[in-house]
Write a structure and sequence with these properties.
It contains 19 helices and 13 strands. It has 535 residues and is of the alpha/beta class. The protein has a four-stranded antiparallel β-sheet. Strands 4-10-9 form a three-stranded parallel β-sheet.
């Protein structure tokens, strides 16, 4: 089992690195530090009379690592569809039944403890139905942490795994009294009680019934909130290896890049709800919001500044009402996004930023700096500085969403690179020029900041071409030739021609490098030449 778990862990670690997750720690339940924490909590619950030895008989799902009552089975299977088997063996039990009233009081007095609200209602109904004491040990296998003083029993996986949250904070839990009083020393980024646990909706019961009961039993503070995220589905079905509809996240990054993958997964569906995945939806969202709206705006603005302001940010000695209005909206983005994130509404944060970018596009079109260049050069400088400052703030705020594109934006805006960590991390100093605290007038882009010739920050993405169909045998000369398959080719190529034409137009509007425009025009002509014709 350890060898298998090593491979699974390595795969998840590689994925975290691939999508540029900046986790402060990585912990496994096989680590010594974790075993010690589990043993301490077990002994404490035992001393307080919440653990007793008995025998268990009931339905158990190996896949779900969960016990199910007879009334929960659906067509002889777990509610998740997993196979169950009847288990009868000696077991230690946790007095979960003693915590029903306290859990209902928790849900009632702290309605935000479980979010989204529909999940809270679901868990309330489960607890109101009556809680049975929980089997917390197994004897049928030896894989796991042994029960202190009785090594024939292995501690139930969820008591073991949930304690991981406490271990990962780096606390010395040898003195629970200090931890209860908030005096225990943890790692530099340790927070207990945690603000939010984000978990899958299929393991919500373990986190909102078992976990708070365990913590209540040892008198430790509870998390402020448990937030259950939904599932990505394919044609309404949950992704499953057995069904064969799993989307490989590594391939997703290979096909579309880190930024496109992160942006769509964070913005493609309200966080907490289920959402249907499709390549078409990803391509449309990324191209519309990142490539067309933001990427084109950055390229237009920086190209114009580089060519018409001696390659440096202009000055803005006096600003008009329309400039101040835009800047006020931009500076107010941070508190607005913080409010969204307090509710785990990541999609609303994405939309707030996208709406501000649309305002910037309207602003540049209305102010028309290319016309002001001839009639009012000073006003042109103010408009361009306002756009540069707006883009600086947007780039900082988008770092958690699109780390690579945001870094390219900040580099091209001449904003000094962060010394450590990532924006918003506890390790980033408050005066970091790329930190969230820099989204304010006091940290505005300085006139004279060098603006080099820009390169695209967000490229358009395209769905990979499907593998070629097996070749058909040659048609008989006397057979019918009414084959409409060429229509599909025309539709595909016409879409490609439209998208390529849009890219060429945006590059020309941004006055991009002539060689780059020529290369894209050549690509457009090649695509047009491949448009099949009916005969």
């Amino acid at each position: 089992p350890l060898e298998f778990a090593d491979g699974v862990s390595a795969n998840f670690k590689a994925l975290a690195s691939t999508v540029k997750c900046t986790n402060d720690d990585w912990i496994r339940t096989t680590e010594t530090r974790h075993r010690d924490t589990v043993h301490l909590l077990w002994r404490t619950m035992e001393e307080k009379g919440y653990i007793y030895k008995g025998a268990y008989e009931g339905w158990y799902s190996v896949r779900d690592e969960a016990f199910y009552a007879e009334g929960e089975l659906v067509d002889g299977k777990a509610p998740t569809g997993a196979e169950v088997s009847w288990v009868a063996e000696p077991s230690y039990f946790f007095k979960l039944s003693a915590f029903g009233d306290r859990l209902l009081e928790l849900y009632r007095d702290h309605p935000d403890f479980i979010m989204p609200a529909a999940r809270r209602n679901e868990m309330s109904r489960f607890v109101e139905g009556g809680l049975q004491d929980l089997s917390i040990s197994r004897t049928a296998f030896s894989w796991g942490i042994p029960v202190p003083g009785d090594e024939e029993h292995v501690i139930y996986v969820w008591l073991d795994a949930l304690t991981n949250y406490l271990t990962a904070c780096g606390y010395d839990v040898s003195d629970l009294g200090k931890l209860r009083a908030g005096e225990a020393k943890g790692s530099d980024t340790a927070v207990w009680p945690p603000t939010v646990h984000v978990v899958g909706k299929d393991i919500l019961r373990f986190h909102t019934v078992f976990w708070p009961a365990f913590l209540m039993a040892v008198d430790l503070p509870l998390p402020s909130r448990i937030f259950a995220h939904g599932w990505w589905t394919i044609n309404g079905q949950k992704m499953s290896k057995s069904v064969g509809n799993v989307v490989d996240p590594f391939k997703l990054v290979d096909d579309f890049g880190v930024d496109a993958t992160r942006y769509f997964l964070l913005n493609g569906v309200p966080f907490g709800a289920d959402g249907d995945y499709s390549e078409e939806a990803l391509v449309n969202m990324v191209n519309a919001n990142l490539a067309n709206q933001l990427g084109n705006l950055v390229h237009r603005t920086l190209t114009f500044v580089h060519k018409n302001c001696n390659g440096a940010a202009p000055d803005a000695p006096t600003r008009a009402d329309e400039d101040e209005k835009l800047l006020t909206t931009v500076y107010n983005l941070l508190p607005a996004c913080r409010e969204h994130m307090e509710q785990q509404a990541v999609h609303k944060m994405c939309e707030s930023i996208a709406a501000t970018v649309r305002l910037c596009n309207e602003y540049i079109d209305m102010q028309a700096p290319w016309a002001l260049k001839k009639t009012d050069p000073e006003r042109m400088g103010v408009v361009l500085w306002t756009l540069l400052e707006s883009l600086r703030c947007v780039a900082i705020l988008m770092q958690p969403l699109t780390p690579e594109g945001s870094e390219r934006m900040l580099n091209q805006l001449g904003i000094e690179a962060s010394c450590v960590g990532s924006a918003g991390s506890a390790t980033v100093p408050s005066n970091d020029p790329r930190g969230f605290a820099a989204i304010c007038p006091d940290c505005a882009i300085a006139p004279g900041t060098p603006i080099e010739k820009p390169t695209p920050v967000f490229l358009r993405v395209e769905a990979p071409e499907p593998p070629p169909l097996p070749s058909e045998p040659a048609a008989d000369a006397n057979s019918s030739t009414d084959d409409d398959s060429w229509l599909d080719e025309i539709q595909d190529f016409e879409a490609a021609v439209r998208e390529q034409g849009e890219l060429v137009r945006s590059l020309k509007a941004a006055k991009a490098d002539k060689a780059e425009i020529a290369a894209q025009v050549e690509r457009l002509l090649k695509l047009k030449s491949r448009l099949p014709t009916a005969s």
